[in-house]
Design goal:
Two copies of one chain form a homodimer. Chain A has helices at residues 4-15, 39-63; strands at 20-27, 32-35, 69-76, 80-85, 89-95. Chain A is an alpha+beta fold. The first copy, chain A, has a single domain (4-95), classed as 2-Layer Sandwich (Beta-Lactamase). Chain A has a five-stranded antiparallel beta sheet, sandwiched between helices. In chain A, a hairpin with a 3-residue loop joins strand 3 (69-76) and strand 4. The longest helix of chain A has 25 residues, at 39-63. The radius of gyration of chain A is 14 Å and the shape is globular. Strand 3 (69-76) of chain A pairs antiparallel with strand 3 of chain B, so a sheet runs across the interface.
Amino acid sequence: MLQSNEVEEAIKRILSHKGVVGLVVINHEGIPIKSTMENALSVQYAAQVTQLLDKSRSMIKELDSNNDLTFIRLRTKKHEVLVCPEKDYAMIVIQNPTES
Amino acid sequence: MLQSNEVEEAIKRILSHKGVVGLVVINHEGIPIKSTMENALSVQYAAQVTQLLDKSRSMIKELDSNNDLTFIRLRTKKHEVLVCPEKDYAMIVIQNPTES
């Protein structure tokens, strides 16, 4: 199981980056276990990113069963959504690319 | 409607990048209209990326109806899949990040 201080360290490091506007950590069921955003938005991001992760993973496996998804970066008009999937959890970071 | 020479120029420029291993252009129905890869793989990428685009777009709209998806980057163990959605088509590029 992942040590919580490892996650804390990672969160601190990420939040120190200029341009980071939000961060959510979700468990393997897609439930937010840590967030810098208010609850309703965290739950929304958690639900949407969980579906996106499922779709992306199945796409990669479909194309090559020996391959694996390691990172997602969605660029939008307003910001960037970064998703880092790990075994027990996934980290979601929202940042303004122009400031980062 | 997009001028085909614009697409040709973009394709030539992308293919000149070191590390690019494949490129597929799909129309708004998800049908491959140009590809550097053999047909079966092009059709597979087209189908999978079309679903990924639909999911990503709906996710972004769900979170903020005034926002729009502009680019997707999926990093995998073996390579990177880049998806650039435009109005009438989408460009899919597969590249080896270590060589690019």
